[in-house]
Design goal:
Layout: H1 10-28, E1 32-40, E2 43-51, E3 54-63, H2 70-73, H3 77-91, E4 99-108, E5 111-115
Parallel strand pairs: 3-4
Antiparallel strand pairs: 1-2, 2-3, 4-5
């Protein structure tokens, strides 16, 4: 399948479904969506949400059953650096920086695990 063919791969579909599941879950926990899929050439943030006074940058990782390492293990140091760069770009719109944190929502075989404040920015 070629890029730009208009078709999504199985992994892309799993990722989008995971983002929707994470968004639903986080809204149930009281968070409010600010923006989704904030993208820059050097990185993307899946969800940016408000948790009371805290702006939360959220990486969503989904894995099908039996995938080696699970969803949490797929957030590598390289991925973390790219998330931090994207968050720095996003924060340029603020005159006064809000309180922020980085969370990961890991979905393994449909089970949601929400890890709060997982990276230092």
């Amino acid at each position: 399948m070629s890029i730009g063919s208009g078709r999504s791969t199985r992994c892309q579909l799993l990722g989008k479904a995971g983002e929707q599941q994470a968004l639903f879950y986080l809204r149930e926990q009281g968070l409010t969506l600010v923006e989704s899929n904030f993208c820059r050439p050097f990185g993307e943030i899946d969800l940016i949400m408000q948790d009371r006074l805290t702006l939360v940058f959220i990486e969503v990782r989904s894995r099908a059953p039996g995938r080696f390492g699970g969803a949490v293990a797929s957030v590598t140091a390289k991925k973390q650096r790219r998330l931090i760069l994207a968050a720095q770009a996003y924060l340029q719109r603020y005159k006064v920086l809000p309180v922020c944190r980085f969370d990961v929502v890991a979905i393994d075989a449909g089970k949601v695990c929400w890890l709060k404040n997982v990276m230092a920015g």
